[in-house]
Structure formats: structure tokens, C-alpha cells
Amino acid sequence: MDLVGRLRQALEKHQIAATSLVVGGPGKEVWDFYQGPLTIGLVPRETRAARIAHIKKASDFAKQCGIQAVQTHCGFIPENPNDPVYKETIAALREVVGYCRNNGQNFRYETGQETPITSCARFRT
User: Where would you tag: which of 54, 72, 79, 93 has the fewest CB atoms within 10 A of its CB?
Assistant: First the structure.
């Protein structure tokens, strides 16, 4: 049996409703306030394309499994909306959000280190 079938069977057997598929990587991610901004999420240019592709693949897998949402930590998004990395990250977010939407899913992003202004303003850019 393939992975999709095994997961669906396990969820049904144990009466678990999977509400979201959590996606991380690929590549090194360091969960601290020193290396984190350089390694986590869709912000780092070096890993962004691979991570976008990984999220899309995860979205397809989740769709096959009947999971209605995909989530990830998007990274340490710059505070300054004029920062080129800010604009690139927003474009990356829009790409994965649109992909998930086309798969009939919600996209959930984890936050915590951004100020409320950055968190709220990111999708108005």
C-alpha cells in the first residue's frame, strides 16, 4: 500500500481528523534568534525555490489524503516593506497560497517574531 493509503487508513482506524499538514525544509533550519533569520522559511534566497516546490508537493500529498490545510513557518520576514527580501518573500507566499487555494486548501503560516504591523501588512503589499 502506498503512503497516501497507509495514512488515510491509520487516520480512519484511530478516528483522527488531520486538519493540517505541517511542512518544513528542505535544507538546514536553525531554530534560534541568531541563525533562524538566515535559515528558516521562505525568506532565505538560497533555499526559497526548493522550499516553494516542497510546499507544493506537500499540498498535493495533503490533497490526496483529504487534508484541508497546509502550514509552514514562513521565516523571519523583514520589517521594512521596502526591503527587496520582504517583497520577494511576499511573492513567494502568494505563490504557495495560490497553489494551495487551487488544491482547495487553506494555507496557514506560523508567526511569532514579527510585529503585528508586519504580520497584518504583508498581504496588502
Answer: 79
